[in-house]
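Question (not urgent): is this output format expected?
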Amino acid sequence: MSFAPTVPSQLLSSAQRPIPLKARADLTIEQIHYQGAGSWVIKDPVAL
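Got this back:
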């Protein structure tokens, strides 16, 4: 049996590290239709 060596995440380049994503409860997501095209809109109450 051979095991692949593990590399600590500190030694990986930023392009190789996974990005932890966390959904914000205060964002609202809506689908709108404008001039016949559908688009998704994310409303951020902090940025308003």
